[in-house]
Amino acid sequence: MTTGPHKKNLRLGEILVSKGVTTPDQISIALTEQKKSKEHLGKILVKLGFATEAIIRDVLGGVLGQESIDLNRAVIDGDAVRMISQDAARRCRALPLTYDSNNSMLTVAMADTFDLVAMDQIAAEVGPDVEVIPLLAGEAEIQGAIRFAPTVLSCPLMAYSTRLKPARSITKAWMRNPMNTASLLSGW
Fold first, then answer.
1. Residue 57: which of 29, 16, 98, 86 has the closest Cα?
2. Contact 41, 12 (CB under 8 A)
3. Of the candidates 120, 7, 140, which has an alpha carbon nearest to the alpha carbon of residue 63?
4. Torsion on CA atoms 117, 118, 121, 122, rounded to nearest 10
5. How far apart, in whole angstroms, are the C-alpha atoms of residue 12 and residue 60?
6. What pTM did the predictor assign?
7. 140 three-class SS
8. Which of 29, 81, 107, 154 has the highest Cβ tally under 10 A?
């Protein structure tokens, strides 16, 4: 990424240290681990407990100029979820969030917004007339939401859109006394 003549390209570790998120020693430990595992530095920092996934997501979003989203506060549109199969969502590490039918735009939370293979697979699922807008999100948040979304969206009380976190208790209560168990199996 070229940032202009007066700005220096910084690495993720340098940015995290400059923001006071991590120490140089923590970055050194994570880089040593990265040489062994070949995983992304951000993922290693989270595994080691040196940073949260939310901080890494927001810092990366800022560095890449990519909008990020906290899925714990996101509102998921049932119409959007039904546009991509659950299998494709897992494979692409993506979660459909909203669908604007007037403009044919699908907003999708993705762990890697520059994954062209995933973007192509999503485009193939939704069709050529739908524009896919990626937002950066944490991979663990996405995986958790993919596991959780089908249950919430099949609940009659959550027919249209819902916040993920508050809906969990409502859905669990509904599941203890389901009005129609077949609705849990429908959809995603």
1. 16
2. yes
3. 7
4. -150
5. 8
6. 0.68
7. helix
8. 81
